[in-house]
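Dataset card, provenance and construction

Sequences and ligand SMILES were collected as paired inputs. For each pair, a complete structure of the chain with the small molecule in place was predicted and serialized as structure tokens. The example below shows a pair involving flavin-adenine dinucleotide. Curators did not alter the output after generation; any descriptive sentences attached to a record were derived from the structure itself.
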Amino acid sequence: MADKFNILHDLSPLLSPQASIVLPGDIAFSNLTSRWREYRAPNISVVVQVATEVDVQQTVQYAAKHNIPFVARAGGHGATEALGTASHAIQIDLRALNEVILSTDGTTATIGGGANVKHVVNTLELLGKRTVTGTCDCVGMSAPILGGGHGWLQGQYGLMADQVVSARLVLPNGELITVSEKSEPDLFWAIRGAGHNFGIVTEWEYRVYDAKPKLSYEIFIYSGDKLEALYSLANNMLKDQPPELMHWGYIIKVAELDPEHPILWFIIIYDGPTEAAREHTKPFHGIESITVQSGEAALSELSALTFQDEDGPGCAYGLTSLRYPIGLNSYNIAAVRKVYNEIDSTFRAVPEVAGSFFLLEGYSTQGVRAVDPATTAFPHRDDRIVVTSYIQYKPNPAIDPVAQAFGKKLRQYLLDGSDDPAHLRAYVNYANGDESLQEVYGWEGWRLERLRKLKKRWDPKNAMRYYVPIE
Ligand SMILES: Cc1cc2nc3c(=O)[nH]c(=O)nc-3n(C[C@H](O)[C@H](O)[C@H](O)COP(=O)(O)OP(=O)(O)OC[C@H]3O[C@@H](n4cnc5c(N)ncnc54)[C@H](O)[C@@H]3O)c2cc1C
């Protein structure tokens, strides 16, 4: 347990003048520890707001010496079972480590381990650059990278993890090392897919690309009876979806649009001019819609269009939010229909969860598939679609079992209807945490074997065990 008097006395003198230690009685404490999901959140005794790399080292060393659990904190959107097992932990708050500095040749940027998506996208945009990031403004950059990292531009450039040239990593014993293809390549392999298990990244050297003109988009809203038509077209699109094209779907209740049933919200985004986008969106106009909205947007504006900006539900803190992810190659229409019907009936039976939504992410995958799957710990490169429920409600233990059963059922429908029902593929950054390690880190035996070996070498005391732990 973190003894607050000792930590103040012992650690403060070792930290930089800009760092601070915040305790539960302090006015800032609850704000600093509030999270996107409060359910099964880590139990924090003290927050160390680090300002330098050395601050991270000193804090980790202090934690190691006193055997105190610690969790890194950037965007605060981490939501998986193991986080809730961190008890009386130190929150190593990385948010001040948020620099985004372009290299002189303009091909990479140095990105701080605590930066969030909005800061990176906006800063690069001002510099005439872009890169692969997650979709939600408030989510950290580091955690998605550590688990692979899906995002709008992955069809063109690969996953977020594929953008990493090197990382500065504070190991669980407090030592600082740089990992890259040349320096500790085994560990470099591991932190790109299973990275929550190995250390705290203070800084990334990350690939960036020249900015392009605005993207084009069309948002279609359909009533639930159009599901078969919509997802048949989505399947057709997946067959030859160009790298610049992506689609996203929500199944969600919007009473103003349909007071009875959930609607189907579907965006197609094309990283190119409207005329070219039209070629892909045209068939979707053939399905009778409730509304269609078309336009152009900067990369930084996609978050607002998809409800992932600071005012949207993606950034709302404090709810119970349950995710049960599955990676797929195409939409099994009958299974998606079952999902829809289950959502429809559950929203009526359990109105507390009627604010939930179901997300179907159909990014392009050429850039992801172009990378040899053996070269990173990310195991699901062949998946074309990432799907998950976001079962959200005001914290209420009476609802928890119903909500969990609901989420699991939705995923099971899709798994049963998938091309490989015996092998669930669950993206680590969305994982509920009750999945098997194979489901998360890969079914090929060598992957877990290699991860376990590396874990023994780099984190023998298993200090990094609060995010889908390998051990
Ligand atoms: C609304 C929403 C949108 C999302 N969108 C995307 C998306 O577009 N693409 C995608 O791939 N994922 C996405 N995710 C999933 C996301 O990757 C995970 O939820 C991730 O854990 C959130 O990271 P965070 O920094 O916001 O959260 P935190 O709670 O701050 O961090 C989560 C965990 O990551 C680890 N961690 C964080 N920073 C570091 C660091 N510097 N070094 C070492 N470990 C660290 C720690 O284990 C920490 O507990 C989304 C999640 C939500 C809730």
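Derived descriptions for this record:
The chain is about 30% helix and 20% strand.
The longest helix spans residues 333-349.
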